[in-house]
Design a protein that fits this description.
Order of helices and strands: HEHEHHHEHEHHHEEE
Radius of gyration: 18 Å
Strand content: 15-25%
CATH superfamily of the largest domain: HUPs
CATH topology of the largest domain: Rossmann fold
CATH architecture of the largest domain: 3-Layer(aba) Sandwich
Number of helices: 9
Low-confidence stretches: none
CATH class of the largest domain: Alpha Beta
Shape: globular
Number of strands: 7
Number of domains: 2
Distance between the termini: 31 Å
Largest sheet: 3 strands, antiparallel
Mean pLDDT: 97
Length: about 250
């Protein structure tokens, strides 16, 4: 959605490697109104197209797809795409209608640009999972590729919304990553009960006074179903508010 940073640059770099010298890399930059709730930050979401364009050029993109909202959504737009299972928990429960907007706009972007492969970051693990399921279920000829999260030196996941954080909030935000890593360490020591892992994350994040937890959940890595015990591949996902800024992160368990 624009306000590009080093995480997005990593996606462009991966796409350039996949495409090779003969292929084409297209970056879509579109602040999608359909995935914002009525009380969310659509109006103030950062829009920095000139800087975004410079990053795209530097990292080897061939084109930017930067449509207007009017060109993407007719005034009487009435067709939506809903994934009804993987989108249910986590951000789907916290932000009703969000993934309907995500699926709809991504399907439209795929239809317009006709990609062979699509590269997404795994910071939003649920978004990637929802879109991968959509591609499978609708038999779309698109190879879905996930790229690991790029982080600041203190572990905070890069996000366009980090710019909203006040200095004290920014100083406390890395607690999310510390909490997730602590739970993963416990998992590796043999703690596989989801509630114990969840409680570890919750307790660590709660040590920072400005942190307000939206959710912490332990889910199956493929279906995103809530787990009582992690016996195969799992993911711990968290969403935390600092002030009015909502940050998400996750860590994979296997």
């Amino acid at each position: 959605m624009g306000a590009l940073h080093a995480g997005h640059a990593a996606l462009i770099k991966r796409a350039r490697k996949i495409a090779g010298s003969a292929g084409t890399v297209i970056v879509s930059i579109f602040v999608n109104p359909a995935q914002f709730g009525p009380k969310e930050d659509f109006a103030r979401y950062p829009r920095t197209f000139a800087a975004d364009q410079a990053i795209c050029e530097a990292k080897g993109a061939d084109a930017i797809f930067h449509p207007s909202a009017k060109s993407m959504y007719a005034a009487d737009h009435s067709t939506w795409v809903d994934e009804e299972f993987v989108s249910g928990p986590l951000c789907g429960a916290a932000r009703p209608g969000h993934f309907r907007g995500v699926c709809t706009v991504v399907l439209k972007l795929f239809a317009i640009t006709q990609p062979d492969a699509a590269v997404f970051g795994l910071k939003d693990y649920q978004q990637f999972s929802v879109l991968r399921r959509m591609v499978r279920d609708l038999n779309l000829p698109v190879r879905m590729i996930g790229v690991q999260t790029v982080r600041e030196r203190d572990g905070l996941a890069l996000s366009s919304r980090n710019a909203y954080l006040a200095a004290e909030e920014r100083a406390q935000a890395p607690v999310i990553r510390r909490a997730l890593k602590g739970a993963r360490a416990a998992f590796r020591r043999g703690v596989h009960e989801s509630e114990k892992l969840r409680r570890l994350v919750w307790q660590t994040i709660s040590t920072e006074p400005l942190a307000r937890i939206d959710y912490v959940e332990v889910v199956d890595a493929n279906s995103l179903e809530l787990l009582q015990q992690v016996n195969g591949r799992g993911v711990i996902a968290a969403a935390v508010f600092f002030g009015t800024t909502r940050l998400i992160d996750n860590i994979q368990l296997s």
